[in-house]
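User: Structure please.
Assistant: Input sequence and predicted structure:
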Amino acid sequence: MSLVKGFDLTQLSPSSVKSVRLTKPTEYEALLKNGWRFGSRSFLARALNNAGQGPRLGLIVGKKMAPRSVDRNRVKRLVRIVHRHFAADFQQLDLVVQLRSGPRDRDNSTLFKELHGLMLGVLNQSVNRA
């Protein structure tokens, strides 16, 4: 069993299903234009209530912030893991997580803790906005 800060990674389902992802440019544009923001040192999250389509996740991890594909894929994997953990709480919320700074100087546990705090902040703001 693989545990990371209380998360059982073996019990998480894959998020490659298109119904839980933002896939169209128009979905990203609407969220980036109208969504509310919450940030941390390395990440910026934008969220917007959706029309009952369930919790959906979009990722913006550019080459400018993480030139190596290994780092980009590591960040995306960590974001998906944390988002799956909070998916039940994000019932009607579209979320885009953007990488702000390079992840190369931080280990997985540091990024994981930061993402966990980011998701808690987004969750608190969504409750306040409802």
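The chain has one domain: 3-129.
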